[in-house]
Structures are given as C-alpha cells and as structure tokens.
Amino acid sequence: MNIENFTGKAEAYAIGRPGYPKSAIEYICSLVPQDAVLADIGAGTGKFTVTLAERGYSVYAVEPNADMRRQLAITLAPYTNVSIMEGTAEATALPDGSVDILTVAHALHWFNLDAFRVECNRIVKPGGLVIAIYNHVPGREMTDFCKQTVDMFFTNPTTWTFPNPMEYTRDNWLAYIASLDDSPLPNDPRYDTYIAALNATYDRDSVNGLLRCDRVTKVYSERIV
Predict the structure, then answer these.
(1) Which SS3 state, helix, strand or coil, does residue 206 take?
(2) What's 10-165+215-223's CATH class?
C-alpha cells in the first residue's frame, strides 16, 4: 500500500465512511475479555477504533498515514485508554507478544498478506485472535476483492454476518465518494465533472432525499496457533 493514498481525504473519510452495526460490535466484544490489550491495524480515522475505546479496552491504534492520524487523534481525543501509533501493518512498531486481540476494519486488502501474517505472529500472544471486519454488498461477496483477500489470509475463520443498511444524505454521499482512494481531489482538473456526475447519480437513485445502500457486515476471526 502507498501510505499517501488517503492524504487529503481524512476529513471526508471521517464524515462519509460507513460505520459498523451495534450487533457486530457486541459480537466482537463477546470474544474479547475486558482486560485484553488490542491492536487496531490500519485504524484510519478511528471509525472502528472508537467502538473499542468507548467500551474501555486498552487499544493501540496503528495508522501509517499522517493525515489520517491527525483525524484519528480528533476522534479519540476523549479516550485515555488508546495509544495512537505510527506504523504499518507489516511493521507496527509494537513489542513482541504485546497484544491479545488484533483487529483490522475494512483495511486487510491494502496489506502485504505474507508480511502481515508474520507481524501478527510476532505481536499477538499465542492463542490470541485476529479479527477482520468488512462491509459487503449482499450477494456479491464471492466476487468482492476484499472477500478474496480474507480467503487468502485466513485458513479457517469463524464468520458471522450482520445486516448494516445505510442511508446517505447528499452531503454524506459526496463525502463517502470523496474518501475513496481513487477519487480526484478538488485541485484535480477532473473534479468538477466528477462531482456533477455524482450529483446526477444521487438525483436519479435517491428517494425522499436519501440514498439507500444495502450492506452486510461480516466479522472473520481466527486464533493464532
């Protein structure tokens, strides 16, 4: 992954990127003892990290991109139980055997899987869990690159599925699209045409001022042997 892919997109990411349903978070927390130490890798702006922080867990939030880390610090400012770390999935800078649970929310597809697997085995205690979380389009998982990445990384994960329907206002929809790594920034010559096309899509597909996007959240977990 080029760590600069999301530079200039952190604010849009914080506004527009979808979160995760309460049922999925409660399931994950049922796997995690209250005294566990967690590492959230590729924490981004803290969309998932904050759900762990607000439940009192001790968390390392590892994020390589400086722009995203600044937004991450804003998200996590109320929580003293989280340490923000500059590091990559393949080189987290965490000590050996320092965490009980490792989480990755909608980021595994960015990683060098072989190097990340080595890092998981280094920092996660024997018997600890590695958990990946993704929002998928229902019925399209088998052709989804993210799901294919999960299949390449895990051997035999436990998988749970939770409904996660989303409704976007126009502003949130534009922020979501702006947060994507391949979307043009405002100084790009393509930007105005791109935004006009997005507005046309919203006008066509929205109902009563909201654009509905059905999603399911899948939680994949496997223990370090």
Answers:
(1) coil
(2) alpha beta
The DSSP 8-state label assigned to residue 210 in this structure reads: B
Beta bridge partners of 61: 40, 84
Alpha-carbon gap, residue 18 to 47, rounded angstroms = 8
C-alpha–C-alpha distance, residues 21 and 130, integer Å: 19
* Alpha-carbon span 49 to 54, nearest angstrom: 9
pLDDT, residue 141, reads 66
Helices (H), 21-137: 22-30, 49-53, 66-75, 113-123
> Can you give the pTM of this predicted structure?
0.88
> Is residue 177 within 8 Å of residue 198, measured between CB atoms?
yes
Confidence of residue 112 (pLDDT cuts 50, 70, 90): very high
Q: What are phi and psi of 26, to 5 degrees?
A: -65, -40
Strand runs labelled E in the chain: 37-41, 58-62, 82-85, 99-105, 124-136, 158-163, 166-168, 211-213, 216-223
